[in-house]
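During the reporting period the student researcher (J.K.) took over the structure-prediction task from the postdoctoral fellow and processed the backlog of single-chain submissions. One of the processed entries is reproduced below for the supervisory committee.
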Amino acid sequence: MSMPDAIVAEGLAKRFEEVDAVAGISFRVRQGELFGFLGPNGAGKSTTINLLTGLARPDAGSIRLGGIDCTQRPRAAQHLIGVVPDESNLYPELSGYENLTFCGALYGLAKRERETRARELLDAFGLAEAAARKFGGYSKGMKRRLTIAAGIIHRPEILFLDEPTTGIDVASARQLRQLIAELHRAGTTIFLTTHYIEEAERLCERIAFIVAGRIVQIDSVEHLLQPLQGWYRVRIVSANGTSGLPDGLAEAFPTLAFSCPEPGVLEAEAGEPIRVGAIVRVLEERGIEVVEARRLRPSLEEVFVRVTGIATDAMRQERERAGGGR
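J.K. obtained the following structure tokens:
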């Protein structure tokens, strides 16, 4: 007998005043899958998590978690799930250890079990030395790690992560991604929301693009990239190039589509392999000093732009406003 899907949402909808935050979306997440919800801020990612975890009631649609119907009983599957919100919900006046044992008590763990589990997680998440320090004095990266530890202290089958790396430094984000990958390898089903395209591509098996409360595409990363597999791109950087296309370049290579995304940078695209050396020779004949020439592999960023029409510059600006970097 096959296992039921870990998460099943059918026709899920939620409206706030005049805004359709979630507009009739449907999707399934398989047992043990790392499923990504990718979209800009305001797309409906956090609202979807709130609906799935019982923090909000849907206006329409149905929800099943681990085979349990949670539509009318939103808390029916609470023992199966762990939730890591986009903002920490732990107590600043408690130590890291005290926060974890308190969360363990809320989940019904016996005293000895929650104390043992808290020490295990503090060690696994690199927080053992900070166990006795108050949570309010932790760095942003440490706070995110402890918040994830609190979300899994009861060993949930399904983990919801809402923007786990937003607003933290590069090193902390890298550590968190490693922790998430380890949880996935251990068999935990993970539902991850993010507006970091690189993060979704790196971590997730399947991804849903969500825009304005609607899912516009769901597929595996491999299949999303497939339409671009026969498309070739190169990027050439010069030390003394101008912001415009060098004279005669388009005529010399009529099958290539050239662009200059920024001063000193030239990109070429085609539906067939590109002879990079030939382009470099033509540029050097025109007195342009080439310092870098490389082929670019297809990226999820390109797919996202084509499918949603949203420029990735807008996504990057959101990341900068949130204080995060990659």
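The committee noted the following: The mean pLDDT is 87.
J.K. will present the remaining backlog at the next meeting.
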